[in-house]
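Q: Got a minute? One more chain.
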Amino acid sequence: MPEANTRDLCEAARNKLKSAAERLETFLNQYSLPQLAEEQDEESVRYYKGFLSDLRHLLVFAESNYEKLGVLLRRSNFDKEAAEKALYHVYHDCVNLFFYPHSESYSEDGRYAYTGQEAIRFRKKPAAEARQVIYDITINFEELRDDLTYYESDYLTQRRMQKSGC
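A: Always. Here it is, folded:
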């Protein structure tokens, strides 16, 4: 991929991460476990603990990768190899964490992806605010996934080939 395209991709990814991180931070600063798990039954508490934990991890990874991309973009000489590595980490740290949360409080149902309906399905019906934060950031991570699909496998294959001398 040409250097200019890689740079543009870094800028676009950085903007999407910033937008998602701002939305996540706002939500996490406004809502706590007792507010979301109003019923206080064991199942709800466990669900929201996992949900909030996943969002906190996602926020940390989004902010961290946002900063890494910013450092790369501010350098006087753009380092294409470092940028490709950073984009690989955006895909694996952020996109994968969003679509495959550890607690499995929600998941993507690909059957809805092309119907215009929300493809995110929740394991348990969440509070409206919790559902909305996921829907608000879904577009960011869908676009990142589409933009960075190359880094899912081709990037690693290319690096392995370089190391083996092919």
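A: The first strand starts at residue 106 and ends at 108.
Q: Perfect, thanks.
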